[in-house]
Amino acid sequence: MSYFFKNRIVLIRHGETQWNLEKRTQGHLDSPLSEKGVLQTKETAQKLRNYKFDLVLSSPLGRALETAKIISAELGTNNIQMEPDLAERHLGVLQGRTKKESLENYPHFFGADGRFIQSSDIPEAESLQDFLQRIQQAVLKLQILSEDSSMLVITHDGVLHAMLGCIKDISFDKVQNFYRFDHCEPVFL
What residues are annotated to the active site? Predict the structure, then answer.
C-alpha cells in the first residue's frame, strides 16, 4: 500500500525521560522528562518556529503528551489531540525493568547481539502483529487528516519505526537498519 500526505507532517519522538537515562523499558509505563528532555523539547520548538501546524497529535502516554504541551506552548499552538494508536507498544513483563534485568530474567527475548527480538512472545504484552496493525491504522488516520491539516505528531521510538516501515514498505525487523530516532529530532514526511 502506498501513502500520500497532502499537507506537512512532522514526526517527533518524545524528549528524553528519567527511565531512558536508566535504560529502563517504558512501554505503556511512564517516567517524567529529564531536564535534558525538557531542554530538547524547547530546542525542537525553536527549530520548528517557522512552520505552521494546524494540529498536534500526541500519544496519550505522559512523556509524549508532556513533550507535545511544551512544544505547543513554545509555538503558540493550542490544538493538541491525543491519539491512542500513537502509544508505544505494551511490553508486558519487560516494562519497568532495566535492560540488564531483562537480559538476566528473559534472555530468550534477546539475540546474541543483545538486541531485543521484536517477535518475542512476551507475557502480558501486545503482540507484534497487533502493534503493527494498530500503527497501520494510525498511518491511515494521518493520511486522512493530512487532507485538511498540517500536523506535528509526538510519539515513541517503536511507533516511529513501525510508521516508517509501513510508509516506506520496509519490514519491521529491517527498519531499524535504516532509521534511528533521537529524542525530539524532527522527521519530515
Answer: 14, 88
